[in-house]
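User: Quick sanity check before I run a bigger batch. Here is a single chain. Can you write out its predicted 3D structure?
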Amino acid sequence: MVLRKDQLETKLKDDNQLIQSGVLRNEHPLDLSDDFNQFLAACRRGDLRRCQELINSGVNLNGKDQFDYTPLIIVSLCSAFGEVASFGVAFGILLCFGSI
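Assistant: Done. Predicted structure follows.
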């Protein structure tokens, strides 16, 4: 089902109210930490080693930046054919299915 713009805005507003009241959980909270920004920068550069280091140190994999981009989106947009894209997409798929 496709929603009209006004319906979508209403739905987003309602969802935001449910998140704030604790009924829903925000799966991708805003993360402005230095580690998360370094992780996104490594994803943009295609720096697989740095991505792995930050993941091993416990960086937030489900955060989003100030532009609502998650690491998986960054990887898919910025390193379309690199190792990081393969790693990120595989890691994202594992996260989605709860295998990790």
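Residues 5-21 form the longest helix (17 residues).

User: Great, the batch can go ahead then.
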